[in-house]
Amino acid sequence: MNDMISPFAPDGFPKLPPLRGFTMATAEAGVKYRGRTDLWVLRGEPGTEVAGVYTQNRCPGAPVDWSRAALTVASNGPRLVVVNSGTANVFSGQAGRDAVVATAQGAAAAFGGNAEAIQIASTGVIGVALEAEKLVDQFGGMATRMTPDGWEAAARAIMTTDTYPKGATAQAKIDGVPVTINGIAKGSGMIAPDMATMLAYVATDATLDQPVLQHLLNDLVGPTFNSVTVDSDTSTSDTLLFLASGAADHAPVSQADDPRLADFCRALRAVMFDLSQQIVRDGEGISKLVTIRVSGAVSDGSAYRVAKSVADSPLVKTAIAGEDANWGRIVMAVGKAGEPAERDSLSIHIGPHCLASQGQPDADYVEEMGATYMKEAEIEIAIDLGLGGGAATVYTCDLTHRYIDINADYRS
Amino acid sequence: MNDMISPFAPDGFPKLPPLRGFTMATAEAGVKYRGRTDLWVLRGEPGTEVAGVYTQNRCPGAPVDWSRAALTVASNGPRLVVVNSGTANVFSGQAGRDAVVATAQGAAAAFGGNAEAIQIASTGVIGVALEAEKLVDQFGGMATRMTPDGWEAAARAIMTTDTYPKGATAQAKIDGVPVTINGIAKGSGMIAPDMATMLAYVATDATLDQPVLQHLLNDLVGPTFNSVTVDSDTSTSDTLLFLASGAADHAPVSQADDPRLADFCRALRAVMFDLSQQIVRDGEGISKLVTIRVSGAVSDGSAYRVAKSVADSPLVKTAIAGEDANWGRIVMAVGKAGEPAERDSLSIHIGPHCLASQGQPDADYVEEMGATYMKEAEIEIAIDLGLGGGAATVYTCDLTHRYIDINADYRS
């Protein structure tokens, strides 16, 4: 996969505590990789609720089709999630669809519950059907090893071009009862989520009705996973799941606007934001972490589209890689977004420096200010359109030689 | 600016014959570059008509604002075009606007006609105001050197990161009277024209009313300049002008659908297509020339947007640079376009090979076929969506280390 760790990797994997109501196991199924795990099964005790968002790509994989349908199926036993790396099982025809069915049936037989309710995800190369028997052969042994303590192992098993495993955890209280939220994610390239990101799993022991889960997920995916972009390419396998075991000892929550959820929402957003940041910090070939803040737009949606246009511009990304405070390219990328923008009301800051405002370079700005700032590892670009109250923030990385090395040489 | 000539450069600059009704000169104004020309003045005899299309970027340069207005101003003398390279005079505030006015006034004084009718264009770095006096100082000398024979010199004077000058010519007959069409263009990066390309000038000695000129230009810009993309970034300075001196000896044409224009339209399209191809063939860092043909879409517009999505995908472009027939990434890029597409009715060819159809890899395809084909310098990808009769073709290049070298190191 990738022998160079991102310079933005965290110091280590955070300590994710066991979560009441969930057990899991990983295995070396040998789908494609050798000498590493590539299969993860998560088992939520009976009563576990699940919500999900999936890729908006029009050519989704067979596992996405299956899992979208499974979201609506009640489970008569545990709630299972099965994830493999090594193949995405996308555009793999009838063989791919058959593999999903065989995987679900094998998992139901080994872990209980009905096959139709199982969430299945595959990540890796597109166009190669999953060999389901490699997974099914592992399920019996995995069923004997299920543990509540395997989050880091799980995060490692679902990696592809990732250079580090991604996890986050937070505590919150509902009705004074402490609950925990754990999450893991994978993703490094083909990252421009249009609903969710490559693969992310967030679980809690809180007791929440399914519509509440889905509502929270829909609300929070915008400022978290949908606000990161590595290369503007939207994966065919994006999946974000949110599971709740209901093991915590508080009265069930059945309304998304229940005031008892305030602290929980804060914690959930923190976990989702942390995971989405870890994905962009592992962006393929990253040498600079870039935050694009747009304000003064006619609406939040307009601000978001302008921020995405800047974040995805190859000329902006290569200038940042070259430590060039090339705000002319930022002007270009604002203007090409097709959103309302007025050259003469636009202002641009890079870090603490005002580079341009009112349609011209700032009188106090000298190139040395930008040149010094651009040597920083983390770059912040603030764009005010001067038109209204709309704002958005998008997180991205630069475009480097290493991105080309990874993607011209590796069949992912 | 660029010491490595594109491998897709033509053998030499074509022979552009003198064009009745037009004279021109170039000069070393020293705007930014040293030891080369950077200024071109084209003079159309009184009676010359002009049509233009300009960038759709919402942050256009002062010269674009000026020239868009100048298009509606009748000239009381010759029709002038003034172009400099070295600065784009974009986002340069009042100083930039003043420079355009000073340039126009200086040109009118030296070459005749009214300043307000002059077409002015600047290309180069964004955010630096043009020093108009550098241009104006040259106009007197240039007025003494005007010649009908300077097309190649003109093409050289307007280059920035281009690795070769771009020109094309064609002959046609109107009413049996021979007429000539000459064109020059520049552009290599920041190429995703949304109306025109960086800078292109097409001129003829035919006798055409201005509305006819504009109609022909609007009709033909779609399948030519608007169908090439290097890096998905739309310039703030894109300008395409079409001038007609009326020196040819046929009865004037005042309707765009006049059947006498059939042969002329063919020739005009050929010139515009040739120039747009020369731009993509000089795409920054190009190692492969790529044609994306989409058919079976619900409309031509939908086919165009799918083709652009594939052509602009960093993962598709890096795979091509790596000579990897990675059709999975093509499926991804089709799906992310947001246009109607059905995974199971999609088929993909690379050159003569069918890679995938009906939602799965083609049974007869083996990886060696694609691996051999991808070593070619010119790659053709054909995508049939299987939904309707819409079709479009987009031309692009791959994404290489050299693109990053050029754009991380050069302030353009």
TrEMBL record, chains A, B:
<protein>
    <recommendedName>
        <fullName>Arginine biosynthesis bifunctional protein ArgJ</fullName>
        <ecNumber>2.3.1.35</ecNumber>
        <ecNumber>2.3.1.1</ecNumber>
    </recommendedName>
</protein>
<dbReference type="Pfam" id="PF01960">
    <property type="entry name" value="ArgJ"/>
</dbReference>
<dbReference type="InterPro" id="IPR002813">
    <property type="entry name" value="Arg_biosynth_ArgJ"/>
</dbReference>
<feature type="active site" description="Nucleophile">
    <location>
        <position position="197"/>
    </location>
</feature>
<comment type="subunit">
    <text>Heterotetramer of two alpha and two beta chains.</text>
</comment>
<feature type="binding site">
    <location>
        <position position="186"/>
    </location>
    <ligand>
        <name>substrate</name>
    </ligand>
</feature>
<feature type="binding site">
    <location>
        <position position="407"/>
    </location>
    <ligand>
        <name>substrate</name>
    </ligand>
</feature>
<feature type="site" description="Involved in the stabilization of negative charge on the oxyanion by the formation of the oxyanion hole">
    <location>
        <position position="124"/>
    </location>
</feature>
<keyword id="KW-0511">Multifunctional enzyme</keyword>
<keyword id="KW-0808">Transferase</keyword>
<feature type="binding site">
    <location>
        <position position="160"/>
    </location>
    <ligand>
        <name>substrate</name>
    </ligand>
</feature>
<comment type="pathway">
    <text>Amino-acid biosynthesis; L-arginine biosynthesis; L-ornithine and N-acetyl-L-glutamate from L-glutamate and N(2)-acetyl-L-ornithine (cyclic): step 1/1.</text>
</comment>
<comment type="pathway">
    <text>Amino-acid biosynthesis; L-arginine biosynthesis; N(2)-acetyl-L-ornithine from L-glutamate: step 1/4.</text>
</comment>
<comment type="function">
    <text>Catalyzes two activities which are involved in the cyclic version of arginine biosynthesis: the synthesis of N-acetylglutamate from glutamate and acetyl-CoA as the acetyl donor, and of ornithine by transacetylation between N(2)-acetylornithine and glutamate.</text>
</comment>
<feature type="binding site">
    <location>
        <position position="284"/>
    </location>
    <ligand>
        <name>substrate</name>
    </ligand>
</feature>
<keyword id="KW-0963">Cytoplasm</keyword>
<feature type="site" description="Cleavage; by autolysis">
    <location>
        <begin position="196"/>
        <end position="197"/>
    </location>
</feature>
<keyword id="KW-0028">Amino-acid biosynthesis</keyword>
<keyword id="KW-0055">Arginine biosynthesis</keyword>
<comment type="similarity">
    <text>Belongs to the ArgJ family.</text>
</comment>
<feature type="binding site">
    <location>
        <position position="197"/>
    </location>
    <ligand>
        <name>substrate</name>
    </ligand>
</feature>
<keyword id="KW-0068">Autocatalytic cleavage</keyword>
<dbReference type="InterPro" id="IPR042195">
    <property type="entry name" value="ArgJ_beta_C"/>
</dbReference>
<dbReference type="InterPro" id="IPR016117">
    <property type="entry name" value="ArgJ-like_dom_sf"/>
</dbReference>
<feature type="site" description="Involved in the stabilization of negative charge on the oxyanion by the formation of the oxyanion hole">
    <location>
        <position position="123"/>
    </location>
</feature>
<keyword id="KW-0012">Acyltransferase</keyword>
<feature type="binding site">
    <location>
        <position position="412"/>
    </location>
    <ligand>
        <name>substrate</name>
    </ligand>
</feature>
